[in-house]
Design a protein that fits this description.
Order of helices and strands: HHEHEHEEEEHHHHHHHEHEEHEEEEEHEE
Strand content: 15-25%
Radius of gyration: 27 Å
Structural class: alpha+beta
């Protein structure tokens, strides 16, 4: 137990549930077991949050979009933009109080009007909570808490809980820290607690969480076990050089020793996918932290316009990279699935809204590469039916980025959208001789290099994108189809077919 003025999350956890065993399960896993368990429980709850969000929207269609509260520390763990917009976020971070201190204001739930409602609570440098990681979720249907602590000589240890009494204790110690460093936010915090108090979930949700956790745990790379074999004879002889080596026993029919597996032989495709998943996770975490701090700085009114412009560029770049790595991470998960599910629940969405939300982003991508983007769209667009609207935007953006990175500067990208029977056809092609053909370099098209079966690398820029086979697989999961053909003038022509929704009316 620490001697600081307030307990930490793990101390409150142990006080409320003393029967839990926090000791590592294996003496050789101390350094990695807790980290592995932490990644598994966080990945599990993040996979279930969209499901609970969808169930809430169906049960309460008239309620505003905020569906709960998420508290994390010392860094934000939520990068999905759809979830960020539907949960009030509190981030407890080890920062000097004056660095992120905002002027006091009248606390009110009106801050929900922002795209990503959040508050950053600085922790004092001496606060032992800065050495722990925690993730707490409060919704209308369940409360959940996970914590990872590290102790010298014992390694990292992870636990999670659905117990309302435990979560209530943790909320009170976090409230004490808000009172200590940002007292003007306490009233808002109390209002949110009244709106989403700790509660016991329906028994089916912990069961669903347990099943998902087992599946996630199987997909996570296992920690390396320490070698328990006996020491070889050669080191013993070196320690005692006067001892002769034992003579080998004669054998009439000597049997050759079994071949020892080499690291390259025992390394499987699943290990590659697990490694890529871990790298994608480690890249997204600091990017999410940078994006969060940038958003907080953009709210300040005392910064020069040039600084705000640069901060907005940083925020946009972080957002783009987070989306890109989220798509790669999602593709890694789907690569572990042996077959595409035959029964997919399709959702009808507006193509017009998808285009309006993403065309400015695609144009900025093209501008950064000195490319022009021409878009041909009919006056009326029907609805389409796909399984995952958010992934559709990510895959389309990934294709646009892949094409822009593979073209020489001065080229033109053309996106044409037309109706094709009961499908919507999106054709993406390029015209490398459209503008300033005399400025095109001798190699008309930068080469792409394959990284395994899932990723492609553009060596000149260092850009990483999904391979075309993996992208085709994602479109099949969405309910559509991607075809690729080569054209002498237009180069690579990508054609996407998406099924029309049941509501054929234009948006």
């Amino acid at each position: 137990m620490s001697t600081w003025v307030f307990p930490t999350v793990s101390e409150a956890f142990m006080s409320s549930e003393p029967a839990l065993d926090w000791r590592p399960a294996h003496p050789g896993w101390e350094a990695s077991q807790g980290e592995r368990e932490w990644h598994c429980v966080i990945a599990t709850i993040l996979a279930l949050l969209p499901l609970s969000q969808a169930q809430f929207s169906l049960s309460y269609p008239g309620i505003d979009r905020l569906q709960g509260m998420i508290l994390t520390g010392p860094t934000p763990l939520l990068s999905d933009q759809g979830l960020l917009a539907n949960f009030y976020n509190w981030i407890f971070t080890p920062t000097q109080v004056s660095a992120l201190q905002l002027p006091p204001c009248e606390p009110s739930l009106s801050v929900e009007r922002g795209d990503h409602p959040m508050q950053s609570i600085p922790l004092l440098p001496a606060d032992p909570l800065t050495a722990e990681r925690f993730f707490l979720v409060q919704t209308q249907s369940f409360s959940w808490l996970a914590v990872l602590r590290w102790l010298p000589g014992q390694g990292s240890q992870c636990q999670f809980s659905f117990v309302p009494e435990t979560i209530e204790q943790v909320l009170q110690l976090l409230r004490s820290r808000i009172q200590l460093t940002q007292p003007h936010q306490v009233h808002l915090f109390d209002q949110l607690l009244q709106r989403w108090p700790p509660l016991t979930p329906d028994y089916r949700f912990p069961l669903q969480f347990s099943r998902q956790l087992l599946q996630t745990y199987r997909q996570e790379p296992s920690p390396t076990l320490p070698l328990l074999s006996h020491p070889p004879l050669q080191p013993s002889r070196q320690r005692n050089p006067q001892l002769p080596l034992p003579s080998p026993l004669p054998q009439n029919n000597p049997t050759p020793p079994p071949p020892q597996p080499t690291p390259s032989a025992s390394w499987k495709k699943g290990d590659d996918i697990a490694l890529l998943q871990a790298l994608a996770h480690e890249v997204r975490t600091p990017l999410t932290t940078i994006q969060t701090f940038t958003q907080l700085l953009l709210k300040r009114s005392d910064l020069p316009a040039e600084v705000l412009k640069r901060l907005e560029s940083i925020r946009r770049e972080c957002h783009d990279q987070i989306d890109r790595f989220s798509l790669i991470f999602r593709a890694m998960e789907l690569a572990n699935t042996e077959a595409t599910p035959t029964h997919k629940q399709l959702t009808s969405i507006s193509v017009q809204q998808v285009l309006e939300a993403n065309i400015p982003r695609w144009r900025k991508q093209a501008d950064r590469r000195n490319l022009s983007l021409e878009i041909t769209v009919p006056q009326e667009l029907p609805a389409i039916a796909i399984s995952d609207p958010n992934m559709l935007e990510q895959v389309l953006t990934g294709l646009m980025e892949r094409l822009s990175h593979s073209l020489p500067m001065g080229s033109q990208i053309h996106l044409q959208i037309v109706l094709a029977g009961d499908q919507l056809k999106l054709e993406l092609c390029s015209n490398q001789s459209a503008t300033h053909p005399e400025q095109l370099p001798a190699p008309a098209r930068p080469m792409l290099q394959a990284i395994g079966d899932l990723l492609m690398l553009q060596p000149e820029t260092g850009g990483v994108s999904l391979s075309l086979p993996m992208t085709k697989h994602l479109f099949e999961i969405l309910g559509g189809k991607l075809t690729v053909r080569q054209h002498q003038q237009q180069g690579e022509v990508l054609t996407i077919f998406l099924p029309l929704g049941t509501d054929r009316a234009a948006y």
